[in-house]
Design goal:
The chain is an alpha/beta fold and 462 residues long. It has ten helices and 20 strands. It folds into two domains: 231 residues, Alpha-Beta Horseshoe (Leucine-rich repeat, LRR (right-handed beta-alpha superhelix)), CATH 3.80.10.10; 223 residues, Orthogonal Bundle (Transferase(Phosphotransferase), domain 1).
């Protein structure tokens, strides 16, 4: 029986190769998709019934093609398609593919080595199947890979074998869920400075910091240096994705209520307090922003991405000259104004970025929105609104939520929630003062947020 299965598998591989050999470059993607279908035992199921020559492959279920290159496949979203069988190695010919999702199916066999040819691949999710064998080392060739999910399979070996790292991603026959950030090695001293910083941060442990499992250092299939960081995977994504949901996404739009926003901001404040005051050495993150605040399964916030972090000397929070050659630190819109005058880093700079994060979380507006290119920035807009028209600056989704509750919670409770919003906006403005010395320290920020959260919880209990 096993030998018969093997012969059928080899026959399907031969048929797949024959398909590809008949086409030219313009039909490579179509042939790769048909090869994938033919190697599935459920290839004729209703979900893939339309995968045939009667329609263009870009219209097939689960297939997404590029807007710039209309005939090139950029995503395969085939999760929960009830697929069974082997994964065709010819998927490695989809050279424009950025996202491959095959989770929650009944796929068997090994992960094809050829997937390592997908140089543009950013997301690979093959979780919850029946895959076996070793995790291919060739995946190290996917230099742009950001998210890799292989949990709930029967894969052997370790994730570290892919990137020459140390993380054992195989426990009890099921791959741990991790996220991988692949570095773009563009600056001359990036390798030494990045490795030194990350090694220092690996010794820091806190509930609200993303756990770094390992730093991966290797050579990719092209002979180039390869560096990556392996983190705990955060299933609820970033704060940015909640504040600014993709309007083109068909999934249910996600929403954070006021208490949830305050709780997340408090988590980030705890993380900064630990970095600045309670670690082995004071650490300045240098890139606090909504995309670097990640949410776990319980919606606990974790600060991540320490690629620009700076360990301060002698525990001082005063401005210090950086020895790094990276120049300007931070992200436009979030970076403290003093960073634009020179490569100076301080804990005060993190407080400024945190204040912008507070304002973004309550207004629902990015600091780089086009509305702020006419002379006012996000901070100035909020500061002016606080004088007489505070609600004009608040996220409309929060306002709608409060208006809907007004009939049930009463005027007094409604007004207390408005007071909490005003306090949050005032906190953001206070943290973004022009002079670094006038910005609130983390201890005062935490005290203020705890009072706001306690007020909201009291309202919830009454």
């Amino acid at each position: 029986m096993a030998r018969a299965t093997q012969l059928i598998y080899l026959l399907l591989c031969f048929c797949s190769y024959a398909l590809l050999s008949q086409g030219n470059n313009s039909s490579t993607d179509e042939h790769a998709l048909l090869s994938f279908k033919f190697m599935l035992s459920s290839g004729q199921s209703s979900l893939l019934a339309s995968w045939n020559m009667s329609s263009h492959y870009c219209s097939w279920p689960g297939v997404v093609c590029s807007s710039r290159h209309p005939d090139r496949v950029v995503a395969l979203n085939l999760g929960s398609f009830n697929l069974s069988g082997h994964i065709s190695p010819f998927l490695g010919n989809l050279s424009f593919l950025r996202k491959l999702v095959l989770c929650e199916n009944q796929l068997i066999g090994q992960i094809p080595l050829e997937l390592g040819h997908l140089g543009r691949l950013q997301v690979l999710n093959m979780s919850q199947n029946h895959l076996e064998g070793s995790i291919p080392k060739t995946l190290g060739g996917c230099r742009k890979l950001k998210k890799l999910d292989l949990h709930d399979n029967q894969l052997q070996g370790s994730f570290g074998s892919v990137y020459k790292g140390e993380l054992n991603a195989q426990e009890g026959g099921s791959t741990n869920l991790v996220a991988v950030k692949v570095l773009k090695l563009q600056t001359p001293k990036a390798l030494k400075s990045f490795t030194a910083e990350c090694e220092a941060l690996r010794n820091m442990r806190h509930r609200n910091l993303v756990k770094i499992h390992t730093i991966c250092s290797s050579i990719d299939t092209m002979g180039n240096d390869f560096r990556a960081i392996v983190y705990d995977f955060m299933p609820n994504g970033s704060l940015e994705s909640w504040l600014h949901p993709d309007i083109n996404c068909l999934a249910e739009q996600r929403y954070l209520n006021l208490l949830e926003r305050v709780t997340i901001l408090l988590d980030v404040a705890y993380a900064l307090d630990h970095l600045h005051c309670h670690g082995p050495e004071p650490v300045v993150h240098c890139d606090i922003k909504s995309s670097n605040v990640l949410l776990d399964a319980d919606m606990v916030a974790h600060v991540g991405d320490f690629g620009l972090a700076k360990v301060l000397v002698q525990g001082s929070s005063l401005l210090q000259q950086s020895a790094s050659s990276m120049g300007f630190r931070g992200t436009i819109g979030y970076a403290a104004p003093e960073y634009g005058a020179g490569n100076m880093v301080s804990t005060h700079g993190d407080i400024y970025s945190y204040g912008i994060l507070v304002l973004e979380t309550i207004t629902g507006n990015r600091p780089t929105d086009s509305r702020y290119r006419q002379g006012l920035d996000l901070r100035e807009h909020v500061d002016l609104s606080l004088h007489d028209r505070t609600m004009d600056a608040v996220d409309t989704r929060l306002l709608v939520d409060l208006e809907n509750e007004l009939h049930t919670i009463g005027d007094s409770s409604y007004n207390r929630k408005i007071d909490c919003i005003v306090s949050l906006l005032s906190l953001g403005v206070s943290c973004t003062q022009e002079l670094p010395s006038q910005r609130m320290p983390t201890e005062s920020i935490i005290k203020e947020l705890l009072a706001i959260k306690d007020s909201l919880l009291r309202e919830q209990r009454t």
